[in-house]
Write a structure and sequence with these properties.
Elements lengths: L2 H14 L7 H5 L6 H16 L3 H24 L5 H15 L1 H4 L7 H19 L17 H13 L8 H19 L6 H21 L4 H25 L9 H18 L1
Helix pairs in contact: 1-4, 3-4, 8-10, 9-10, 11-12
C-alpha cells in the first residue's frame, strides 16, 4: 500500500471519530471495547489462510489493518502515540532483532538467529523490569488463547533454564498427569474441582510436548478439530445415504460409520 493510501486510511479513521460529523458507533468505542473485534479479525485472517482463500485474505488483512489504525487514532486523541510512532517502533525493533540482515553480524544458522532473537526480546523485557517484585511472566497477555499462553509461559521458563532436557521428559510428565487424573476420577466421591485441576495440568503438559517438538499447540489442536469435523461430516453423509439420521442410530452403528469414514478419508489422502 502506498504512503498516500495509508494517509487516506488514517484520514478516514479520523473522520469516523470526528466529534461533530463522525459515526456514532465509532465515537462510542474505546481501547477495551474494540478488543473483541480485533481478535475476531485476527481469527478471520487465520481462517482465510487455512482455506487458501487469498481473495478473502486480502480483505481480512485490510480489516485487521483498520483495527491497528483504530487503536492509533484513539491513542492520538489522548496524546499517547500515533500511527507513525507505531511504524517507527516496529521498524527499529525489526532492524535490531535482525543484525545478520541489517548489520555486519554473522548469524549463520537458524538456531543462532533464534537465540539472538530471544536474547533481544529478553533484553527488552529486562529493561521494563523496574519493580523488585517483577516476574518473567509480567507481560504475557492474559487475553491470549489458553494454549498459546501456556506455550509462552513455558518459553519464558526456558530463558532461565527451567525446562526438560528433551521431549522424553515431557512425555513422562504427561503419563504422570494422566495417572493423577485417573486417581481423581476413581475416588469414591469425585471432586469436580480436583478433576478440573488435574485435567488442566495434563493439558499444560501436552503443550510442553508440542513445544519440544517445535509444534504450535494452537495449530495442532486446530488441525485435530479439522480432521474430526471432516470425518464426522462423512459419517453424516454415510448415514444420509442409508436414509437414516444420526439420532436414529445406535452408538455401535455410528462407531461403525466412523471407522469406515476414517478408512475412506485415509485412502483419499
Amino acid at each position: 500500500m502506498s504512503e498516500v493510501k495509508i494517509e487516506q486510511l488514517i484520514g478516514i479513521m479520523a473522520q469516523l471519530r470526528d466529534p461533530k460529523t463522525g459515526c456514532p458507533w465509532d465515537l462510542k468505542q474505546n481501547f477495551q471495547s474494540i478488543i473483541p473485534y480485533t481478535l475476531e479479525e485476527a481469527y478471520e485472517v487465520a481462517d482465510a489462510i487455512e482455506q487458501q482463500d487469498f481473495a478473502e485474505l486480502k480483505l481480512e488483512l485490510g480489516d485487521l489493518l483498520f483495527q491497528v489504525v483504530f487503536y492509533c487514532q484513539l491513542a492520538k486523541e489522548e496524546n499517547k502515540f500515533d500511527f507513525k510512532d507505531v511504524v517507527d517502533g516496529v521498524c527499529e525493533k525489526l532492524i535490531r532483532r535482525h543484525p545478520h540482515v541489517f548489520s555486519t553480524a554473522q548469524l549463520l544458522t537458524e538456531e543462532a538467529i533464534k537465540e539472538n532473537w530471544e536474547a533481544e526480546k529478553a533484553k527488552e523485557r529486562a529493561a521494563k523490569l523496574t519493580d523488585a517484585n517483577a516476574s518473567i511472566f509480567d507481560n504475557v497477555p492474559q487475553a491470549l488463547p489458553a494454549l498459546t499462553r501456556a506455550k509462552k509461559l513455558q518459553k519464558r521458563c526456558v530463558n532461565v533454564g527451567f525446562d526438560w532436557p528433551d521431549v522424553k521428559g515431557t512425555l513422562e510428565k504427561v503419563k504422570e498427569e494422566i495417572a493423577e487424573l485417573e486417581d481423581e476420577l476413581n475416588r469414591a466421591e469425585m471432586a469436580e474441582d480436583k478433576v478440573a485441576e488435574e485435567l488442566g495440568d495434563l493439558m499444560f503438559a501436552l503443550v510442553n510436548v508440542n513445544r519440544h517438538l517445535k509444534l504450535d499447540p494452537e495449530m495442532t489442536l486446530r488441525a485435530a478439530n479439522q480432521k474430526f469435523e471432516q470425518r464426522f461430516r462423512y459419517v453424516e453423509q454415510l448415514a444420509s445415504e442409508q436414509q437414516k439420521t444420526l439420532q436414529d442410530m445406535s452408538l455401535e452403528e455410528m462407531d461403525y460409520l466412523w471407522e469406515k469414514a476414517k478408512c475412506e478419508i485415509k485412502k483419499r489422502n
